[in-house]
Each structure stands twice: as structure tokens, then as C-alpha cells.
Write a structure and sequence with these properties.
This protein is α+β, with helices and mostly antiparallel strands. The protein is built from 3 helices and 4 strands. It has one domain (about 10-80): Glutaredoxin, CATH 3.40.30. Pfam families: Glutaredoxin (PF00462).
Length: about 80
């Protein structure tokens, strides 16, 4: 998997988080998983990034982020960054 400097903040029980991770896996992209329930400071960081408590929060290499993105949203963003 390519190293893309993508950070994903979420929880194992979250369906949207599972879908976002599955999309990134399908695209063949690596990412850093931050479990907000088990990683100290991860929940606070996700809220700091997005300004809200919705997950997943996907932080991209250009500093932008998406909250609860669809696979299409992720693909469009990653293509714009030249990562797909």
C-alpha cells in the first residue's frame, strides 16, 4: 500500500468508519487508524480537526478533511491530490 499520509479517526463499531476504511483499502492506499475509544487524545483530535463529534474524520496530506465521506467523496479528493 502506498504511504499517503492519511489519518482516519473513528471507532470499530462505526459503520461509516468501516466503509471509509474499506474504500481506502480498495484504492490500495495506506492510512493511519486512530481509534477514538482506545487511543489517548484521538477523540479530542478528531473534534479539533472537524469541529464536530461525527466520525469518521479523514484528514488528508494537504491538511483538508472530510467527515463521514462516501467512497465517491474519498476517490474524488484523492484524485485531486494525485494519490489515485
Amino acid at each position: 500500500m502506498a504511504n499517503t499520509n492519511i489519518d482516519v479517526y473513528g471507532a470499530d463499531w462505526c459503520g461509516d468508519c468501516k466503509r471509509a476504511k474499506a474504500a481506502l483499502d480498495r484504492f490500495g492506499l495506506g492510512y493511519n487508524w486512530h481509534d477514538i475509544e482506545h487511543e489517548d487524545g484521538a477523540e479530542a483530535k478528531a473534534i479539533e480537526i472537524s469541529g464536530q463529534k461525527h466520525i469518521p474524520v479523514v484528514l488528508f496530506s494537504d491538511g483538508s478533511f472530510q467527515v463521514e465521506p462516501s467512497a465517491t467523496d474519498l476517490k474524488t479528493k484523492l484524485e485531486s491530490l494525485g494519490q489515485l
